[in-house]
Design goal:
Elements lengths: L3 H22 L11 E4 L10 E5 L11 E6 L8 E6 L15 H8 L1
Antiparallel strand pairs: 1-2, 3-4
């Protein structure tokens, strides 16, 4: 069980990942969210840095190992970004997410 101070952060991580998964499947909220679950393997101590899909709805043919997921934190504690991609030609794609500071980009362009 997570300490109270980390429970909200985990909730939003799970919500972002589930939202990303159901959009990647193209089924939206028709998919039973209770049947989608993730495991969080901690490499750096906070437990949110290495999520993996471990359960998909039984009514689908989706297998967890066929999906790549990424959880990003564009603004540390206040935002979560979930990215999901399925197999492409039988291979899981690599996901790379790059943060771009638009304010700095606009200033540099002036």
């Amino acid at each position: 069980e997570l300490p109270l101070d980390r429970q909200a952060r985990r909730f939003f991580a799970i919500w972002s990942l589930k939202e990303s998964f159901i959009k990647a499947c193209g089924l939206g909220l028709r998919m039973p969210l209770r049947e989608i679950s993730f495991a969080f393997d901690s490499q750096f101590g906070d437990g949110d840095d290495s999520p993996r899909l471990v359960e998909t709805p039984s009514e689908t043919s989706y297998q967890p190992e066929d999906w790549q997921i990424h959880l990003g934190r564009p603004q540390a504690q206040t935002h979560a970004l979930g990215v999901t991609a399925g197999l492409v030609q039988g291979r899981a794609p690599a996901i790379r997410v790059t943060h771009v500071d638009l304010t700095a980009l606009v200033k540099a362009a002036r």
